[in-house]
Every structure is written in C-alpha cells, then in structure tokens.
C-alpha cells in the first residue's frame, strides 16, 4: 500500500496570484516564484521553496501555466511520489488508508473536465485584447488537442496531479516545448503525453478520489452559460467507481 509518508503534497505560486489559505491544510511544500509571495507564505506557516525572486519564469501571459510543469519537474527531483493541488481544490474528507490505497501501483493520475463546444465559436469575438489573445490561442490548440464528446471538448484537468514516475514531468516539458504549446500548457501537454482515446484514459489515468469538475458545474464565461460536465460524468461513472475525497471548485 502507498503510505501517507511516501507522498508529498505540492502547490505552486507565481505572478500576481494571492488567493491562499490562511494556514497550511496539509503537510505540503509550495514552490514560489516571487520573493514577496515567498516571504508572505513563510509568515503564514507554509514550507516553501523559492524558485526565483522574479514572479514569472515566462514573460508572455499565454504560457503562464508552464510554471506548473516546472513545479512538477522540481518536485520529481526531490520526491518519489507527489500530489500537485491547485489552490481551489477543497479537501472534504480526511485522507485515510483507503485514499492512499487508490494510488497504489499508479504512475500518473489526472482527472478530466469538459468545455462546451460553443467555446470554439468565440474566436475573434472577445472585446478586451488581453482576453481575446488568450481565448484565440486556446481555441487554436483545442482544435488540435482534446477528446470530442458529443457537444463537449474533454481535457485533463491539472488541478490534481498524482505522479510516481520521476520521468514524466520532463517528458511533459519536452512536449510543451516541441509543440510550442500555450494557454493550457500543462493540460494540452498531458493530453499529448498519454496519446490515447478517452475510454482508455479514464480507465488508466482518471483518479477515483476527485472529479475535474463537479457534475453541476456551470461553464459561465463570455456569454456561454452551460452545464457541460454531465455527459463526461456519465461515461466516467460507467467505467470506474469514484470515491470522492476532494472537490475542484
């Protein structure tokens, strides 16, 4: 069985992000870009690694999630097994022996979530340039990467990542650089790394302890308001049995 002490929980902070917990909820390490954020998190009791005094590794906003891949790479240098969590992942049950048993013999687990297909129609339709550049680039890549499911586009959701293979983070970075991936850098890189159909992915990479998004989640952005997770949840629940310990808000 995977023992609790064998797994390190990790998070990442970069840029202007400032939505942190008041106190650390887990025995975790936070990889920090930015000296001010580093000092702040230390004052709150977090165990931190200062990656860079600068707040960003990449200069262009559309590659900001590359920081997550760097975080995974650094964690793999120090820990045999780790779980990356976004700050908006909520723990709703104590991690018991059953939780850790679900990770036994697993190398890589990332949940999935769905975008409404209407998202692809937003190209060049966003008013503000900053948002338009992001959405336009995201659409370009979504047309190449992601599983099609009826009226949704399904992607890995990098809010939760379990990894026990130290080679995977470097492979993800290699993929992101080779394909020049932007916007959802870590999620598109994971999609290319697994190189499989959706059913195989769910059976082999979908964790049992969390959904990428809850079934009742409403995609509400840029004049699209749609409950887009239902079809995906139906397929997941037919293929594997979930036992939820965490929620991605």
Radius of gyration: 18 Å
Molecular shape: globular
- Main sheet record: 6 strands, mixed
What is the percent of helical residues?
25-40%
What structural category arises from helix and sheet content?
alpha/beta
| Residues in β-strands, percent | 15-25%
Question: What are the segments in which pLDDT stays under 50 over at least 5 consecutive residues?
Answer: none
Counted beta strands: 13
- For the terminal residues, how far apart are their CA atoms? 29 Å
| Global mean pLDDT | 91
Number of helices: 8
Order of helices and strands: EEHEHEEHEEHEEEHHHEEHE
Strand order of the largest sheet: 3-2-1-4-10-6
Describe the structure.
The protein is of the alpha/beta class. It contains 8 helices and 13 strands. The chain has helices at residues 35-43, 66-78, 97-101, 129-142, 168-178, 185-194, 198-205, 230-239; strands spanning 7-13, 28-33, 47-52, 81-85, 89-91, 108-109, 112-116, 147-149, 152-156, 160-163, 218-221, 224-227, 246-248. A 6-stranded mixed beta sheet has the order 3-2-1-4-10-6, with helices on both faces. Helix 1 (35-43) links the parallel strand 2 (28-33) and strand 3. Helix 2 runs antiparallel to helix 5 and helix 5 (168-178) packs across helix 6 (185-194). The relative contact order is 0.16. The mean pLDDT is 91.
């Amino acid at each position: 069985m995977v023992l609790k002490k064998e797994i390190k929980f990790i998070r990442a902070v970069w840029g202007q992000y400032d939505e942190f917990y008041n106190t650390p909820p887990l025995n975790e390490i936070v990889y920090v870009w930015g000296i001010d954020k580093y000092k702040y998190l230390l004052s709150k009791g977090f165990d931190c690694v200062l990656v860079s005094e600068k707040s960003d590794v990449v200069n262009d906003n559309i590659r900001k999630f590359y920081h997550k891949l760097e975080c995974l790479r650094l964690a793999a240098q120090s820990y045999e097994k780790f779980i990356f969590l976004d700050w908006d992942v909520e723990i709703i049950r104590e991690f018991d022996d059953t939780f850790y048993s679900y990770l036994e013999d697993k190398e890589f687990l990332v949940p999935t979530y769905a975008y409404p297909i209407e998202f692809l129609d937003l190209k060049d339709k966003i008013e503000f340039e900053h948002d338009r550049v992001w959405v336009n680039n995201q659409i370009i890549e979504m047309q190449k990467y992601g599983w099609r499911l009826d009226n949704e586009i399904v992607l890995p959701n990098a809010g939760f990542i379990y990894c026990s293979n130290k080679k995977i983070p470097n492979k993800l970075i290699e993929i992101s650089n080779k394909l020049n991936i932007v916007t959802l850098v870590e999620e598109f890189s994971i999609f290319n790394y697994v190189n499989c159909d959706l059913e195989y992915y769910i059976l082999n990479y979908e964790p049992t302890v969390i959904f990428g998004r809850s079934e009742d989640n409403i995609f509400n952005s840029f004049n699209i308001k749609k409950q887009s997770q239902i079809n995906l949840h139906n397929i997941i629940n037919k293929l594997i049995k979930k036992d939820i310990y965490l929620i991605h808000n």
